[in-house]
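Entry 14. Two folds queued back to back today. First construct below, sequence then structure tokens.
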Amino acid sequence: MLRDSPSYYGSITRCLHWLIAILVILQLTSSFFNILWEGNVYSQAVVQWHTTIGVGILALMAMRTLWAISQLRHRPEHRGALQKAAIWGHALMYLVLLLMPLSGMAFTWGSGYGVYVFGTAYWTDADVSWAATFGQLHAPLSWFLSALVTGHILMAGYHRLIRRDDTLHRMLER
């Protein structure tokens, strides 16, 4: 089933979710490992693809956002404080997942480096102070995104282990 239903997320939603999750975890872990162990092999292998992966996340998040909006009527009704918090948490995560790559691209573009995607440079030789300033949000947003992802994983565990409901099952199986 491609579309979402009140019982399950459809294959498009699940595919976008897990693909973005893998890319975000790859980005965050390589960056944090580089802070802890500068020059480690894992971070060095990933850093050359950092911008390309970020642009990929941006494109996938744009698709996911549009898809999620189109599927709202197919999803279960959300009642109660926990469900309302989940809506706000997801909306905030979507926003940060869009702002992260935009701020990263703005930083490199605004600092005159250009944006390199699959080895091809775009918007080179620019020196745009407002973009570089906006790009300064990239690092703090990465810490905030890490907290959101951690909370998301913990809440999935809470639903599975404590509440024993089908929330996690909706994203894992069909």
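Second construct, same run, same settings:
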Amino acid sequence: MLSHVFLVQWELSYDCYQCHQGGGHCQTDKTNKFQCTDAKTTKSKLGVTLGAVFGGVGLVMITLVVSFIWCYKEKKFSPSRFLLTKKFSDIFKHDVEGGSIYFGVLVFSYSELEEATNDFSSSRVLGDGGFGTVYYGKLKDGREVAVKRLYEHNCKRMQQFVNEIEILTRLRHNNLVTLYGCTSRRSRELLLVYEYIPNGTLADHLHGNKAKDGSLTWPICMNIAIETAGALAYLHASDVIHCDVKTNNILLDHNFSVKVADFGISRLFPNDVSHISTAPRGTPGYIDPKYHECYQLTSKSDVYSFGVVLVELISSMPAVDMNRHSQEINLSNFAINKIVKCAFHELIDPSLGFDSDTKIWEMTTSVAELAFLCLQTDRDMRPTMVEVLDTLNEIQTSEFGNEKRTESNINATEAKIVTASPFLESEDTLSLKQVKSLPSPNSVTDKWITCSDITRTK
């Protein structure tokens, strides 16, 4: 508190006093010389100043709005928007370590999954992929899970982490693997948690550590083909391309029911675009050659890969085998060469009953011919996954190959087929009823008669 009173005094010059009395403002310029400014002039200058300021602000706002609209349109119509529909910042804006739900799935702590996998013990490894290692785990609530641990050296691990979460949380199908949850992106490592499928992969049973003669009977193989085709048809109807269809990504439960897995490089693909231009990614032996050549991804790329899977199912051979002839290292080329020659005995695994059961002979050769269509070099000649699924169902119900076969169900007998292999010789036999020479590897053949239409002789 003030304990003394003091006075403040100042002297006003006569000129300044006269200026003030006249309604002006007493001012000094930069040289400290007296100036008497009229009040109206001052207000006018103030108005001009404020007008310039607000005008500049308005111009900046208009520029920002126009830029935003332009960027929005560019993003809306750019194919790149289909790779991921949300920015990382949008996806993770509610991402909090320790939160219970994030992006529609459970959030697990790193320590919880570390304990579930016994500190990521090598004895718990279920398999290694191109982007991570999968471990068996058991949660505290007793659930068995598969934990994918993305490689640290993978520079695109965050994109693949987000991609798989986004795609699997929007899809629901009995033959697609279920995603239980994940760690936070701020966690020590990026981990994805799936339902555990106990019976390994289709590759394990065909030519891996679970392969045994007779373990995969033909009815089981047919069901696997149909369920996988159904899952892929569902993906395509949901505007998703898997991009890495292969027997290692087809999981089997104890009843040999299919669970398609691994969506790390899958793509969202709305049906209002013809293709996505992107560098080819996938697994050697399964990659669509047109995709590899033109860098254009379509749903028919999955169809090609599924064609390779069909050939593996009927042959029990791997997609790539360096011990085969140099022009037949890829199973697709090997199969095409055998199919166009009707040399099914050199392609189809005899343990399926090909040599002993007429019904199985007819079904396996029909599946081989369907695979031939899927493996066409010209994408337009390949069927859609819906057509593939319909045909497989007809083969299973014995409607394929008899009088019920129609053009709408991929009538290979009446269709014009473009041969898919660049390695076919010019004198290959296309029909056992009428021998025709093949003038060019890419020529169109008239009324190609399938080998399954020929009466089997024993």
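Quick look at the second one. The mean pLDDT is 77. Residues 39-77 form the longest helix (39 residues).
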